[in-house]
Task: structure prediction
Amino acid sequence: MALGKLQKVLISESLDPCCREILQAGGLQVQEKPGLSKEELLREIRDCDGLIVRSATKVTAEVLEAADRLQVVGRAGTGVDNVDVEAATRKGVLVMNTPTGNSLSAAELTCGMILCLARQIPQAAASMKEGKWDRKKYMGMELNGKTLAVLGLGRIGREVATRMQAFGMKTIGYDPIITPDVSATFGVEQLPLEQIWPRCDFITVHTPLLPSTTGLLNDSTFAKCRRGVQVVNCARGGIVDEGALLRALQSGQCGGAALDVFTQEPPKDRDLVNHPNVISCPHLGASTREAQSRCGKEIAMQIVDMALGKGLTGVVNGQALSKAFAPQTKPWIALARALGTVLCAAGKQVQGSVQVCTLGTPLKEAGSYLTPAVAMGMLTGGTQKEVTLVNATLLAQEAGLKVTTTHSDVAPEPDSSTGLVQVSLQGTPHQVTGTVQGSTPVLRQINGATFKQPAPLSGPVLIYRAKASDTSALATLTGLLSKAGGQLLSYHSSSTVAGEQWSIVGLSTPLSNLGELNPRVTEVFQLHL
Result:
């Protein structure tokens, strides 16, 4: 689905009323229907432009396929485990979340779990309710001086670390993205996992559920830990191998576990939940009034900003589209898309390797959003699927098109202050170069021929190559336009290469028949940019 006007949003789970209020104040029609069955969701989603969920709604490929108008799925919370992001990306549907909304609530629950494990508070409370007074049975441990391993040092992990440091705990950790220098600023010493296992008294996990993190704690890793290690999982079910955890608890290798999440929710296998050394909750990490209000408010504001064209935040799968909202990048994205379209028409192929080269310091960080824009231009018209900045990279890969990017800070005059974009079809002579003048994308070169006056790349254009000495092509084109009731809006010609020139003509309306022009040119193609 191409990014268009957002009108109707479905909220499929219970959210703070402020979510609905903000959406309605932003001019959106809102339907609140929590607790929908799969069949009901498939019916309701058909005419919705947006969908807001928490964690219960499963946004599967089937749901996305049924949603003809869907442009955005908003997850009110962290993670998007319940959304098929790849299927959404393929369809061009944006997926966004609120990564900061419930961080504090999840961190505080984790800290509470650590305290409960250390002092067996839930078990002692349950014993009291049974009329018992078992002071000796519930001997605990102090946290002061103990070592806490924090696996995953994002927002929640670092909040847990700093809070538990106040109890005198030594915090070590691991994160493949956060650098040791950064983690040192909040008191966490980073170590390789192999060095973490034998050193920690407590382990808490705060990673997304990925193939690389599934079963992060397993039979092998438990065997490397200190006997009696305590484990907390308030992140995602599956990061801790539940079978391995149960075996470690039964053998005493694991002294206790606190679980807020499970592989299957609610868990049908009750062996873990019923183990005397396990504290469990029904996925309460984000279940505070503050977190729910914050997440509902944030996702609503993000969708309203998207609807009003103000910008995109919290985007999981459309970083290039995020840039498309910035006034300074919009014309460059339009240029990259136009260059991709021109190159595809000139090269007469979609498959192969395309090299995008950005020239000039202003474009140093532009490759991340110009690459999918070029792919979008290359694919437009050549695929049955609608191509957007969200799905262009994925669809390009599936079409056998590889788009790579390089950068040089040096751009030739007169474009050194603004920059140039050069797109080449590897292994062929086909290359196009353009820049932005004001807010207009323009073509500077095509296949080695330079335009003294850069040619605008917008609207209906006709591009042809003919002998420099033969002016009959332009006369014929003017006649065709007159017959069709159209107008020639602009004309730009290139330098001569091997006795031939390229010409770019801006048209008021596309021509339906180029039959009379074909004999007078070497090649011709018509585009709508």
